[in-house]
Amino acid sequence: MESFSANIDFPHIRDYCQYRTLKYMSNINESIVLIGGGGGVYRVARFLKHIRKNITTVQTMFDYGGHSKRLRDERGMLPPSDIRQGILALADDSLEGGMRFLLSYRFEEKNDPSLDRATLGNLILTALTEYHDGNIVLAINDLCRLCRVKGKVLPVSIDHANLSVILSDGSTLTGEGLIDTRSHDDNRTIVSARLEPKANIYVGAYEAIVKADKILFCPGDLFTSIIPTTLTEGFVGAIAESKAQLIFAVNIMTKKAETHRFPASRFAEVLLSYIGRDRFDAVIVNNGSLSASTRAAYRKERAYPVRIDHKKLGKFATRIIEADLVDEEGRIVRHNKEIASLLAEL
Question: CATH number for the domain including 261?
């Protein structure tokens, strides 16, 4: 197992900068597939598109909370939120500011259940899907053209299914929204996850994974954003067939409802158990610190920085890549642009 820190003191910093530049440019056309949910994929893709030309996002399609639940229940719509964020991330920069506002605009609550808390971008995708007689892939392609997307945005599946988990007390909980928003006082842990009914991987997503040079499982909620993509029929087969480097960017923070007190090794171990592999080619972890105020705010939600347990993590990763990845904005912790640089250099 090889460990590498990206924020060490280099004696010849100019040589190191030249090295990184060469790494960026030499593989600019490599095929990179980003897998996961809206927020994590969005952060990586938005930064990565400036240094790589061939990016494909494979988005989870099993959201069942908020207004997406209404769209699914009332209009038979596949949940569009994660797709919308993928499109925003890869949109042409000359359009991105205005389009981000439009596609991200959320209607305020005004006692109108049809629009309260609805996101305009989700409604646009719904309208385009209905225009194409229920074909969400054609709707995605239309919106990608409108936003001059650089790359591809793909659903992991176009089948209707819900996420279901078995908890540590033996009970079953179905619906991404219910799983994700459990009370902080609920001490039950997630034992296993499945899709009900079964869903097949979308053929375009299968082909992208098989042909990729690098596959990154992006930061995000482990059981409600990342693992659901792996549960589609054919996903494990695509990973087995692919010759890509398999990379995992571990979350910066734990989450009470899903990954309470998980060290980095536990994140990797759990995800590997769903994709049929023994280890990742590389795992990217944060070694940066958070401000005291941010840590205090997260403690109220019983969320804590993910601990890097090097020895055990080494069992699940050929390389451990450490860097300061913290971006604190409004006391919300996200990955900074270094995540894209590290991925490009691998």
Answer: 3.40.50.10680
